[in-house]
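Aim 2 progress update. The chain analyzed this quarter is reproduced below.
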Amino acid sequence: MKKYSLLTLLLLTVIGSTACSNDKANQSSDHSENQPANIDKLQTKFVNIATGGASGPYNVIATNLAEIYHKTYKVNSKTQTTGASVENLNLLKQNKVEMAFVMSDSLTEAILGQGHFKDKIDNVQQVAALYPNYVQIVTSKKSGIKNIEDLKGKRIAVGAQNSGVEVNARTLLNGFGISYNDIKVDYLGYAEAADALKGGKLDAAFLTSGIPNSSLMELQRGYDLQLVSINPEKIREISADQAYFLAMTIPKGTYGNTEDIPTAAIMNALVVRSDLSEDDVYKLTKTFFENLDALTNTHQAAKDIRLESAQQGLVAPLHSGAKKYYAEVAEI
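Predicted structure tokens:
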């Protein structure tokens, strides 16, 4: 009896072990079948993107880009609405975001430790030069303001404090011999400035962004909007010291204007923290350019982003991951 019992026990043990092995194999098979195949991974767990005001092109384009990164890499990617360039660069410095949209003037100040930046920001590198931001100085037709020189003594919105708009507004005004002591300054973002103009609380406002700006499109419907001209020759003089300024025109019909309006423009930049790996930034750059059509559908400003001009007008060191992508496409 004892022999039979021992034999039975051994037999049951073998059967149980085999069943368990089969169950584990089946569970492993089921698990693998439920997992998407060949998902590319990023080393970073987050791709948080610092943008700007809720109605601006930065925010609109970046929101769509974050969704693309999430779907492509299953990474935690979201946008952060901010006061734009200066704040974005400080967020990068503090390692609170991985990527940011900024203006080249603020980026220049950041890497040199000038203007709004007491210390150099040395953990930021560029991915691409994007589209031009047009300096759009807006007033009413009845104000009598035609040129930037006419702003002296007026109440002016110069952008949100610590924004790229405020940086270039101050620089341009100084270039025309106008300091903040010569005007009444209000620090207002796009939507707030448009509302203040409509309410008669401002004489003019700087709204520097891609065109068209949605706040100005909305303002145009119930306001006798007029764009203020900036002399292109004077812009070229200013750009001798501030190389990021370009002389460009706001095309006629953008806001109901019957002719082109000469103004200044500054290239936007897509930047990342320099500590992101080469492989991650390569993938982020590649995905960005492969989805330009989708980004253009979200905001018209993105139509001026082009792969062939992405390395033109760089003002910060190019990240090795972006460099790897550009070298790869150049060989195709």
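Strands lie at 49-50, 79-80, 99-103, 124-140, 155-157, 184-186, 204-209, 225-227, 245-250, 261-273. Residues 24-38 have pLDDT under 50 and may be disordered. These observations will guide the mutagenesis experiments scheduled for the next reporting period.
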